[in-house]
Write a structure and sequence with these properties.
The protein is mainly α. The chain has six helices and three strands; from the N terminus they run αααααββαβ. The chain has a three-stranded antiparallel sheet, with helices on one face.
C-alpha cells in the first residue's frame, strides 16, 4: 500500500487519489485496512487539543471510504462508532481540564460496585496517556460500571524488601 501513514492518508485530497487508495487497501484486504486502523488509533492516542479536529476528519474520511469495515473482519463491525466515541470522550477531557492543571501524575480507575470483580487501576500516567485510556474505555462501560480520571496530589510509596 503506497499510503500507509496517517499523514499520507490525510494528503488524499482528490477523488482520484482516494479511489486509488481505496483500491490498494481493498486489494490488500485485512492487512491493508489494519494498517489504516492502526494509524488512526495511534493518531487518536497521540492527539492533543489542537489535533482533535484533524483526527476527527481523518476518521470521517476513512468511514466514508470504507463504510463496511466488517467486510475485512467481523471484529470491526462497530469500529467507526468506537473511534468516534473515543474521540468525543477525549475532547470532553480536554475541554474540562485546563492546560495548567494537566501537569503531574494521573490515574484511571474502573469498577462496578454491584459485582464481585477486581478494580482496574492504571496508575502513574501522564495526563495525555490517562486522557487516552479514559477516552478508550469510557464508551465501553457496562451497566453500573464507572470510570474515573483523577490527578494524584500526594503520593507516599513504599517498596518491600
Amino acid at each position: 500500500m503506497t499510503n500507509n501513514t496517517l499523514a499520507d492518508f490525510n494528503k488524499l485530497t482528490t477523488a482520484e487519489a482516494e479511489a486509488l487508495f481505496k483500491r490498494e487497501v481493498l486489494s490488500e484486504g485485512f492487512a491493508g485496512f489494519r494498517r489504516l486502523l492502526d494509524s488512526l488509533t495511534d493518531a487518536i492516542k497521540a492527539s492533543c487539543d489542537t489535533d482533535m479536529d484533524t483526527v476527527e476528519q481523518s476518521v470521517a474520511k476513512a468511514k466514508r471510504l470504507f463504510p463496511e469495515p466488517v467486510d475485512f473482519s467481523p471484529s470491526w463491525e462497530k469500529i467507526w462508532p468506537e473511534l468516534e466515541n473515543t474521540i468525543a470522550a477525549k475532547k470532553h477531557i480536554f475541554a474540562n481540564v485546563s492546560h495548567v492543571d494537566r501537569a503531574g501524575e494521573w490515574q484511571v480507575i474502573m469498577d462496578n460496585p454491584l459485582v464481585v470483580q477486581e478494580v482496574v487501576c492504571y496508575p502513574a500516567l501522564s495526563f495525555e496517556d490517562a486522557a487516552y485510556l479514559y477516552a478508550y474505555f469510557r464508551p465501553k462501560l457496562e451497566k453500573s460500571e464507572y470510570i474515573r480520571l483523577q490527578k494524584i496530589q500526594t503520593v507516599i510509596q513504599e517498596i518491600g524488601s
